[in-house]
């Protein structure tokens, strides 16, 4: 079986097919740089994933296990997500 070498659109060897694909997609969508001008990496999707899962109501213990981190770390970095999600419950019964 022969080894396959994946290349970028410029013909240069890709570090990995996944990284090359994501970088190309971010470039084409004009999203390669974040709001602070820092280039996005595949790691930024970890934050997005955690935020969306918590917004969907996934249990923090399950998410921590799935992501290979602690519940404390999830709560430290994403505790605001549940607060925003449940704001309507906090405001129930308030007038004005």
TrEMBL record:
Keywords: DNA recombination. The keyword Transmembrane does not apply. Residues 1-92 form the Tyr recombinase domain. InterPro entries: DNA_brk_join_enz, Integrase-like_cat_sf, Integrase_catalytic. PROSITE patterns: TYR_RECOMBINASE. The keyword Ligase does not apply. It comes from the Bacteria. This is Tyr recombinase domain-containing protein. It comes from Granulicella cerasi.
């Amino acid at each position: 079986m022969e080894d396959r070498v994946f290349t970028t659109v410029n013909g240069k060897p890709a570090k990995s097919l996944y990284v090359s694909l994501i970088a190309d997609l971010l470039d084409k969508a004009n999203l390669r740089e974040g709001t602070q001008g820092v280039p996005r990496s595949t790691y930024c999707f970890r934050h997005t994933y955690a935020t969306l899962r918590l917004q969907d109501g996934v249990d923090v213990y399950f998410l921590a296990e799935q992501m290979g981190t602690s519940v404390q770390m999830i709560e430290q970095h994403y505790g605001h997500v549940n607060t925003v999600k449940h704001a309507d419950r906090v405001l129930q019964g308030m007038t004005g």
